[in-house]
Amino acid sequence: NVENLNNSIELLQETLQLTEETVVNDDSSSQAQKHPARVLALNNLGNVILMRFEIERNTDEVNKAIQWHRAAVTLTREMWYSERATFLNDLACALRTRYGCSFCEKDIREAFTLHHESLSLIGQNHPETSKISSDLAKSLFLHYSHTQIQESLDSAVNYFRVSVLCESSPMSMRFIAAREWAQSADSALHLSSLEAYEAAVGLLPLLATLGLDVKFRQEVLKSGTDGLARNAANCAIRLGNFEKAVELLEAGRGVFWSQVLQLRTPMDELQDVAPELVAELRSISSQLEQGSHRSVKDGESLQGVFDAQEIHFRNLNEQWSAALEKVRKLSSFQDFLCPRRFHALKQAANDSPVVILNASISGCDALIVTNEGVAHMPLNKFDMKKGNMLVRLIQVSSTSNSMRSLNNGNPSSAVRLSTEDSANGIMHNLRMGRPARSSTVEVDDIYRYVLEVLWDDIVQPVIQHLQIQKSVTTPIRLHWCPTGLFTFLPIHAAGYYTQKFEDYASQYIVSSYTPTLSALLIPGRHFESKPTSTLEIEMMTVIQSKTLPFTEVELKIIESRVPRQCLITLGTPKSPASMEKVLSNLSTASIAHFACHARQDAANPLESALVLEDGDLKISRIMQHEMPNASLAFLCACETAMGADVLPDEAIHLGSTLLFAGFKSVVATMWSISDEDGAKVADYFYQKVFHGVGQHASIKPIPEFGHTARALHYAIGRLRSEGIGFRRWVPFIHIGK
After folding, report:
1. What is the DSSP-derived secondary structure letter of residue 662?
2. Which of 29, 33, 74, 572 is the most buried (most CB within 10 A)?
3. CATH assignment of 524-736, given 3.40.50.1460, 3.40.190.170, 3.40.640.10, 3.50.50.60?
């Protein structure tokens, strides 16, 4: 913000006047009073002026900044070694900026000298070593970019490596250095690019440390981490290392949830070998998990509490790391809670192939994981530009007056596209060549266009690669693991849906989604050992009868499909759906069915919530509860699988929350749904999950938790056969096992 920068410059100049009036020249020999505030003001003034230059691109600003930095360096010639190192480095960065404008070799050579002098003052184990080494690396890389001198590139890589490996420096500095190393080396096709990406991805869990509360962890992950794992995978793919690509995607995505799961890891095998370590880990993990949801009580001193909490939880995090190191020294536990290698990850595809869709600025690819290995399929017809266009079209068409709260009140069937969309030629494609009369277009035409592109560019090539044939009765299971922009696209519904020609995904496959491969490897009680009686099953149904009339119909349908002794119903006049009641029953339920309002908070995903009678049941509160009996969750509400633009690879939405909280199979919605459709889908779905209850009251069937994806496949097929629009049946998806 230029206004803020201008205000900062005025304040810094006032500081200089208050400390002492001095004329600053490049060759000034003035011995001004070495007041700490004056020296800092000189250096900061140079930094702020450089910031303004980055916005306004006025080269005179760079010359002014260099003058102020030289003045600061002059005043610290015989004092404050660590501060002088910082001032020398800042002057070097200013000279680098001028070199980037004029490419004067003298400037960059002086910058190199200043960077080296700065490093010599502080040594190898100073907190600033990482930043100064990284700045030197950036100066060297800029020189290489202009001159193509290989020595400059190799030296840049060496100093990036020094920066990343400096354990005495803050983790944030090391991560930034690793990310910049990866980007620089990758753009120059340097052999170290994959090493750099591995370093950056490896630092992610340490950056978003368990000692932070969940909200701050989310903020850390929003700060410059999006796209890192996808670009890392693309680098590995270009090098032909497909297994490494899968490992990098797994380690660098879903970091938020993998940390939560770390604290809840079963330790049965370790218990037999080192029970004392198990006790220690459980004690620390319990404290860390409780601390993740900490807050300050009214009346307490904010600063005092925050300082004490920060120290306490930083110590707990260090104890956790030390305990893990003890475990990893034991025989057969070397990889305990380490990122999974591919030989372990491919077990996620034991029951069905998993197709990872990677979206990177360098290209889009499919990694097809089976129990035999991984195959790479480039998506040559699809790129980020096309993907972003499809996402925009879906967002425009799915959010126009189609909320469940409309009670199916005839949502608009047409939307107005932007000038940008029209300019891209989309309007012509959507109208199938018909002449344009306005900028509005039918919603179904938008969906038809998007689904056909997804079929041609992505889904059909995958099906052909796997040699899958059409099957009306037994289509095979397939898991989609989308990354980046793919998380916002209805891959499962891809295809051609016209009277003249029909060819679509569900004729070949039963689609499920998974945020990560690891999510398919979480053991589940009723998935691993089928319950032998309905007495073992508890189903909680939450409805919102006051504002969603069809939820009462939905409840009656569920009661006709599900054995009554299993049911606990909330949301009726006799049994209100309060947050405390829902959470209490959620902790013991095998099945949870929510027929209510929901909302997605795009800016703060942890604030997304199910809307209950006494308030919002937020993700941040749901994730505090363990759910040991959880098997199936049906979120018959709006936007329960809608990811956040700010963190597409962290899958922080209601559907994934219940998945990682313990439910192994989740039915959710990518955007808004019709009130009437929720009841229909529930009817068809539970008809398959609980066979025949309505027809034969004496039969008490055991639910088929392992067939929930096929049950939803059947239900959506029935709904689609009624001839309704795409917007009403496409949103429903299955997540998990």
Report:
1. T
2. 74
3. 3.40.50.1460
pLDDT band of residue 243 (cuts 50, 70, 90) is: very high
Whether residue 627 contacts residue 668, with contact meaning beta carbons closer than 8 Å, is answered with: no
Instruction: Report pLDDT for 284.
Output: 80
Q: Report which secondary-structure segment, H or E, holds 403.
A: none
Report percent pLDDT > 90 for the chain: 45
Find, among 661, 663, 641, 662, the residue nearest to 652 by Cα: 641
Beta strands in 325-457, from DSSP E residues, in sequence order: 354-360, 363-370, 373-378, 414-416, 440-442
| DSSP β-bridge partners for residue 478 | 511
pTM of the model: 0.84
Q: Tell me the pLDDT tens digit for each residue of 684-696.
A: 999 888 874 444 4
**How far from chain centre, in Å, is Cα 280?**
31
Tell me the H-state helices in 125-274: 129-147, 150-165, 171-187, 193-207, 214-222, 228-238, 242-252, 255-262, 268-273
Residue 693: the pLDDT is 40
Q: Measuring CA to CA, which residue among 442, 444, 443, 458 is closest to residue 495?
A: 458
pLDDT category at 256 given cuts 50, 70, 90 is: confident
Q: How long, in residues, is the chain?
A: 737
CA dist 370 and 355 (Å) reads 9
pLDDT band, very low/low/confident/very high, at 418 (cuts 50, 70, 90): low
162-191 CB burial, b ≥16 within 10 A, e <16 = bbbbbeebebbbbbbbbbbbbbbbbebebe
Residue 440: strand pairing partners? 416
pLDDT at residue 509, as a whole number:
97
d(CA 159, CA 172): 17
pLDDT at residue 372 tops 60? yes
* CATH number for the domain running over 2-250: 1.25.40.10
Backbone angles phi, psi at 253, to 5 degrees: -120, 155
Three-class secondary structure of residue 732 per DSSP: strand
pLDDT tier at 425 (50, 70, 90 boundaries)? low
Please say if the pLDDT value at position 190 is more than 50.
Answer: yes
Report which of 581, 377, 363, 563 is spatially closest to residue 465, judged by C-alpha positions: 377
Task: Provide the angle, in degrees to the nearest 10, between the axes of the packed helices 150-165 and 171-187.
Answer: 160
pLDDT confidence of residue 126:
86
SS3 of 509, please? Answer: strand
Confidence of residue 716 (pLDDT cuts 50, 70, 90): very high
Candidates 695, 689, 694; CA nearest to 711 is 689
- Alpha-carbon gap, residue 419 to 364, rounded angstroms: 27
Domain-by-domain residue ranges, the chain? 2-250, 266-295+303-332, 349-518, 524-736
Q: What is the DSSP letter of 475?
A: P
pLDDT at res. 632 = 92
327 token code pair? 């475990």
* d(C-alpha 46, C-alpha 66), whole Å: 7
Residue with tokens 């409309």: 406
Distance CA(645)–CA(603), nearest Å, equals: 8
Residue 649 or residue 620, greater confidence: 620
E strand or H helix at 310, and its extent?
helix 302-328
* Burial degree of 626 (CB within 10 A; 0-12, 13-18, 19+): exposed
Written as one string, the DSSP assignment of 12-55 is HHHHHHHH------TT--------HHHHHHHHHHHHHHHHHHHH
Q: Which residues pair with 666 in a beta bridge?
A: 633, 735
